[in-house]
Design goal:
Distance between the termini: 43 Å
CATH architecture of the largest domain: Alpha-Beta Complex
Number of helices: 8
Radius of gyration: 17 Å
Structural class: alpha/beta
Largest sheet: 8 strands, mixed
Strand content: 15-25%
CATH topology of the largest domain: Spore Coat Polysaccharide Biosynthesis Protein SpsA, Chain A
């Protein structure tokens, strides 16, 4: 395999959110949150940006802003499945050889971080790439809601993922890394990933990426400087408004 030459960015979005209803359409300074995410992804300059929409309302908001939207089955089980279905619809002939999956609830994400999740695919052995940042807050080291990427970076900025866990790992002195759920897949790797059944450790940890590791796929982790603000609650939304209003 070689470095992908024709990547595409896909942002999965759906309205179903228990803590923040209609989250993709939440207003941030006059525009829906999903439009802010689409703008950040466009600024990354990786390739065309598509929003994979579970509902027509999201598609309407994206197209009104000048973006590309693809409707997907609202009953799909995961964002990865939504990305795959949107890509199959947008590009049935396989023109695009890699896909960057950007979460639809990251309106303040730095475009440089989106580029960073694509760069590890320069290694032909890498099937999937993702991001992590060093944990700096003591309470996050033991918080099961903070997923840890277990990888040995040494003095580098990219390392092979050995495991992902909600536990405090690895043991002993040294940094811990907060996993950030952006991914780049080689096209063939995404096709394979969504065809695999849920794996044992994936179901135990409730971490989808463990399906790839359990099935022998190589995930590379790129180290970035901080964790982007994910919007899951009304309080998060107010923080995003403050950040983007600065």
């Amino acid at each position: 395999m070689t470095t992908p030459r024709n990547p595409v960015v896909v942002i999965p979005a759906r309205m179903a959110s228990t803590r923040l209803p209609n989250k993709p359409l939440a207003d941030i300074h006059g525009e829906p949150m999903i439009v802010h995410v689409w703008r950040r992804a466009t600024e990354a300059g990786i390739g065309p940006v598509i929003v994979a929409c579970a509902e027509q309302e999201i598609a309407d908001a994206v197209t009104a802003a000048g973006g590309l939207a693809v409707l997907t089955d609202p009953d799909l089980p995961s964002g990865s499945d939504r990305v795959h279905q949107a890509l199959q619809s947008f590009d049935p002939d396989g023109k695009y050889d890699a896909v960057v999956n950007v979460q639809g609830d990251l309106p303040t994400i730095d475009a440089a971080d989106i580029r960073a999740v694509f760069d590890p695919l320069v290694d032909p052995n890498v099937d999937i790439a993702t991001l992590a940042a060093e944990i700096t807050r003591q309470e996050e080291r033991t918080n099961p809601n903070v997923v840890k990427a277990v990888a040995a970076f040494g003095i580098g900025r990219v390392a092979r993922a050995l495991y992902f866990t909600r536990a405090t790992a690895p043991h002993g002195d040294g940094p811990l890394y907060h996993h950030i759920g952006l991914y780049t897949y080689r096209r063939a790797a995404l096709d394979r990933f969504v065809s695999l059944p849920p794996a044992e450790l994936e179901m135990r940890e409730k971490l989808e990426q463990l399906r790839a590791l359990e099935n022998g796929m190589m995930i590379a982790v790129a180290l970035v400087n901080g964790v982007p603000l994910g919007v899951d609650t009304p309080e998060d939304l107010e923080r995003a408004r403050l950040v983007l209003g600065a």
